[in-house]
Design brief:
By secondary structure, the protein is mainly beta. It has four domains: 45 residues, no CATH class; 147 residues; 77 residues, OB fold (Dihydrolipoamide Acetyltransferase, E2P), CATH 2.40.50.140; 93 residues, OB fold (Dihydrolipoamide Acetyltransferase, E2P). Helices cover 6% and strands 48% of the residues. The protein contains three helices and 33 strands. Strands 24-27-25-21-22-23-26 form a seven-stranded mixed β-sheet, with no helix packed on it. Strands 3, 7, 8, 11 and 14 form a five-stranded mixed β-sheet that branches. A hairpin with a 4-residue loop joins strand 4 and strand 5. The longest helix is centred in the first third of the chain and has 22 residues. It is globular.
């Protein structure tokens, strides 16, 4: 109701108001007698028992996983992704809830989930990725670590999907693979970095059924076909902070990406150093799998420390002048860890109290001559450090310093050519991987040109491996020489226990 300045009613406005109300009431009365597909009814409790119909179009869960093709000289590649969409001539479906910073060297020859959107059923023949820039950390022509930020607002990649992605009633998985070597042009001599529209490949798959119970209340849909061994929906490792937890699920803020993933838990979920009642707010490491209903299930949740600590993962790049380890950070979570430190070099202060471990999955390492400890840690290895304390200022000149209570060996990927292949029993084999000339491992460790590879019965491997083949090998990299007080210029020898072996011909 409006009033004039002399406080008399404005009858014209009042009449218009009554007419508007009458029309709305008529529409409401009409709608209570109608029904139809795609509509849901909401009770108007306490006001005469009326009801209002709201349109609720059906959607289907689509899991979005990302991975990367292997690189050589690049140590970290963080892409600032504005959006990812499935599109056709009349519709578009957002696959990311918002802008995300995604780091891709961690997922070379692997995939990790980044979003779990609900998508309107349709056939989509295009995948669009829009990026606003990247941070690239690499080794220059002299072997020095360099970090470059490249800004390219609204750089768009549009991939035609063949076959098209079909979203129906059954939840599916969409894997997006980024070719980092083609997405970024690197000139290590003049230290020039150019960002191209992301070079993508993508594949839609049914979610492979996996053994074990589903969480209470979760009903898996039918599976049509098995997925490729390289992407079976296994969550190898997610590290983040629990921002909300209940008896049957938890929400995990993953690293510095900004992604928040909901993972279901149940009585079969194994908790280490935490319980469902105490895990809220803690920094955790999660292993799990995708379920065929489109959800994620956490089979194991390990608390690293309270939120006063920090976890950082990355690649070792030698020692700084103070004698501390240099770690090129790929990602991290916890006190004082920020997105600005992704791609930066941090100082790591280990001492006699530091523990060492391996983030093992199903790999068989029985009887192999490999060690990871204070005497067998070297530049080029990919590690995780866990600390009870926040990152501290670094007087050696790096942006920050960490004092870990634990250093853990992580999987990484190397490329090269097969030499001296020898097949063993029960699917095992050994061979030398002759590294590419621009391999970061060979550049950091002068004289290191090969890595001895152990293929185990647990290794997911390309069939018909033979000498001369170009391969990418993902697994755990060990330095087989003692590294205590190694004289400068010493050639170090390495071995890798392979988790997967893929042809790169």
């Amino acid at each position: 109701m409006w009033f004039t300045n002399n406080h008399r009613y404005n009858m014209q406005g009042l009449s218009a108001t009554f007419l508007t109300v009458a029309l709305l009431m008529g529409l409401l009365l009409l709608s209570t007698g109608c029904g139809g597909a795609g509509a849901s009814q909401a009770n108007n409790g306490g006001n005469g028992g009326g009801s209002v119909l709201f349109s609720a179009p059906a959607t289907t869960p689509v899991q979005v996983w990302v991975g990367a093709e292997p690189t050589d000289r690049i140590l970290t590649f963080r892409l600032s992704v504005t959006s990812i969409k499935l599109k056709n001539s009349t519709a578009a479906a957002d696959l990311l809830p918002g802008a995300s910073d995604l780091e891709f060297t961690r997922v070379e020859d692997a995939f990790v989930p980044v979003a779990l959107p609900d998508v309107a059923p349709d056939t989509y023949d295009q995948l669009e990725m829009v990026v606003s820039g990247a941070r690239v950390t690499y080794l220059d022509a002299n072997g020095a670590v360099r970090t470059k930020d490249v800004a390219s607002p609204d750089l768009t990649s549009l991939l035609t999907l063949n076959p098209a992605a079909t979203v129906g009633e059954i939840p599916t998985m969409l894997t997006i693979d980024v070719d980092v070597n083609q997405t970024v042009q690197l000139d290590p001599v003049n230290n020039l970095v150019t960002l191209n529209p992301p070079v993508l490949s993508a594949r839609q798959s049914d979610i492979a059924s996996s053994p074990g119970p589903a969480p209470s209340g979760i009903h898996a849909g039918p599976k049509k076909q098995a997925m490729l061994a390289s992407n079976t929906g296994q969550v190898e490792r997610l590290v983040g902070q629990v921002v909300w937890a209940a008896s049957d699920q938890l929400s995990l803020q993953v690293g510095q990406s900004g992604s928040i993933l909901v993972l279901h838990i149940d009585s079969n979920t194994m908790f280490d150093n935490a319980t469902p009642d105490t895990v809220n707010g803690m920094l955790v490491e999660v292993e799990g799998r995708a379920l065929t209903d489109g959800t994620l299930y956490a089979s194991a949740v390990g608390a690293l420390f309270p939120d006063t600590g920090v976890e950082v993962e990355g690649t070792l790049a030698g020692n700084n002048p103070s004698g501390l380890l240099n770690l090129v950070a790929e990602d991290g979570i916890g006190a004082s860890m920020t997105s600005a430190l992704v791609g930066a070099t941090l100082s790591i202060a280990v001492d006699g109290s530091t523990g060492y471990g391996i983030h093992l999955g199903n790999e068989d390492m029985g009887g192999l001559p490999v060690l990871f400890d204070e005497s067998h840690i070297a530049a080029g290895q990919r590690i995780e450090i866990d600390s009870d304390f926040a990152l501290q200022p670094d007087y050696a000149g790096n942006p920050a310093q960490a004092q870990p209570y634990m250093v853990e060996l992580l999987r990484q990927t190397l490329q090269g050519t097969v030499q001296n292949y020898q097949a063993g029993d029960s699917g095992t084999a050994e061979f030398d991987l002759v590294l590419t000339p621009s391999s970061y491992l060979g550049i950091i460790n002068a004289g290191t040109g090969t890595v001895h590879v152990y293929q185990r019965y647990t290794t997911q491997a390309t069939a018909g491996i033979q000498n001369g083949m170009n391969l990418s090998v993902r697994g755990f990299l060990f330095c087989t020489d003692p590294t205590d007080n190694v004289p400068p210029g010493t050639t170090l020898h390495f071995a890798m226990v392979a988790s997967s072996i893929n042809s790169s011909n």
